[in-house]
């Protein structure tokens, strides 16, 4: 059991190192930040001074080691735009993003999981077909299209809700709805197929054959097994809580981490972009780690494998 | 004596395709009945249908009575009491027949709690006793293990223990040893017949292995394409099969003693359930088939005390067999 977790924690750490490296390399290769920030007409000595100040003149491997060193000390650099610590800029935006993604996560689960279970239990029924058609529509329509449709209907046509901004709770409704609908659709489909897979297993028939009432077959035999694959997708969704709303925040001018990322990328604000990427990687890796731990908890076979491997 | 279970005219169709086409079968108290036939002949479906374990889209018709009470269309609560209580069932692939995320204790005690008036410590004690009966060593400790921690043979023993939890009158063993290797097979069959004798339980042994059925059953019913084609006491069926299909099955077995003979194979293949021939389903493969065979499906008719066969050429068939034997 301890080994199972140790292996996974090691893997998680390795993933973070790789992500940091990747972000560093891609961003350094994608253009000269000095020219981007100061413009091509800037005097050479200004550019040289800028480069020196940000360490852009050092060899790239030196910059890389320096960066790791800084991260180890908790320093994630300063924004090249306004000179404030990048981490501070990002942290300021997190509450706004969570104000969208957390309620959206709750709605996704509350809508998607029961819909998927219901559809699986009533496979082939009219309700199953309606749920699945909605689900297919929900996850094939890109979120910016869905966002625009919602704006068109509820803001432009009906005038019930504002189309963008962050002034009141009413401004959060459309972005949350956009995020929830797409996620609920994915979850519904996933839960349904996980449930169908489990319901077709021989041990479900065994449970019925020993006289377990159907309701209990579903709750105590099918659901614990169907939870295993469903937890995977839930873990992925937890991982997107911080930066999963890039598109939606942009459409609704919501000042969250996603908008900050778009602006920072456009400005080649390296410190901010790297800070956000690192944060995203950290949430993703953490949620994957939690999923792995949950697997170990939900599936005794995996626990045994980890212990003997 | 009235039979314990009587099945009459049981038919099952999946999506309009008939897989059982009128099965009549009776099972006496404490009797061991073998059900043989090739894959898809309807052996398992017969009992899954009888216990209401088929998927909802299956169309089931006919009658299944347990001690005179109709099971088809019985309310769910009533069926739940009977399943695992009066009629228990064990399945072919033990590895996937137990829930992988629940401990053996949980699965065993669930059955005990449902069908026996036991609570608390008594449930656990009974669970330990059942594991002892089926020969799982160190029962007290093994109860907290998960199914993947046992071998195939052990899991089948646990399945049997679970089936015994409700003190059933009938145990349906659906190919209980097919997925196991030969030595374990023998042990499981031995265990089943010991338990049956000791508990006075009736057993239906579904198998495509004629040898297994011959050794363990009092009476055998042979199924072909969703019907029972012959029924006889075991020794009589193996010595003197009447239906050409039963003859074919037995002719394909190598004899252990006596002179060597050429093993016979049944020509052709089982008809597609969606395109059953008119009349006798075996006629296209039958060497004795005559014109009337293609007209109407023969019904199961008694030919002797305790024997019945569904073949209009039964007499000719019997003569043909005797002719072969005389050669």
Order of helices and strands of chain A: HHHHHHHHHHHHHH
Distance between the termini of chain A: 10 Å
Low-confidence stretches of chain A: none
Number of DSSP helical runs of chain A: 14
Rg for CA atoms of chain A: 24 Å
Q: What proportion of the residues of chain B is helical, as a percent range?
A: 25-40%
Can you characterise this structure?
The complex is a heterodimer of chains A (309) and B (327). Chain A has helices at 2-29, 33-38, 44-54, 60-72, 86-121, 126-140, 143-157, 170-199, 202-209, 214-239, 246-251, 257-266, 270-298, 300-308. Chain A is mostly helical and 309 residues long. Chain B is α/β, with parallel strands linked by helices and 327 residues long. Chain B is built from 12 helices and 12 strands. In chain B, the strands form 2 sheets. Chain B has an 8-stranded mixed sheet, with helices on both faces. Chain B has a 4-stranded antiparallel sheet with strand order 2-1-4-5, covered by helices on one side. Chain B is globular and about 65 Å long. Chain B starts with a strand and ends with a helix. The chains are: A mainly alpha (309), B alpha/beta (327). The interface between A and B is medium-sized, with 24 and 35 residues.
Quickly describe the structure:
The complex is a heterodimer of chains A (309) and B (327). Chain A is mainly α and 309 residues long.
Descriptors:
heterodimer, A: 309 residues, mainly alpha, 14 helices, 78% helix, flat, B: 327 residues, alpha/beta, eight-stranded mixed β-sheet, four-stranded antiparallel β-sheet, 12 helices
Secondary structure layout:
The complex is a heterodimer of chains A (309) and B (327).
Chain A: H1 2-29, H2 33-38, H3 44-54, H4 60-72, H5 86-121, H6 126-140, H7 143-157, H8 170-199, H9 202-209, H10 214-239, H11 246-251, H12 257-266, H13 270-298, H14 300-308
Chain B: E1 5-14, E2 17-27, E3 32-36, H1 43-50, E4 58-66, E5 69-70, H2 76-82, E6 87-90, H3 94-97, H4 104-115, H5 121-133, H6 139-142, H7 152-164, E7 170-174, H8 182-199, E8 202-207, H9 210-216, E9 219-224, E10 227-233, H10 234-239, H11 244-251, E11 301-304, E12 307-309, H12 314-326
Parallel strand pairs in B: 3-8, 3-9, 6-7, 7-8
Antiparallel strand pairs in B: 1-2, 1-4, 4-5, 9-10, 10-12, 11-12
Helix pairs in contact in B: 4-5, 4-7, 5-7, 7-8
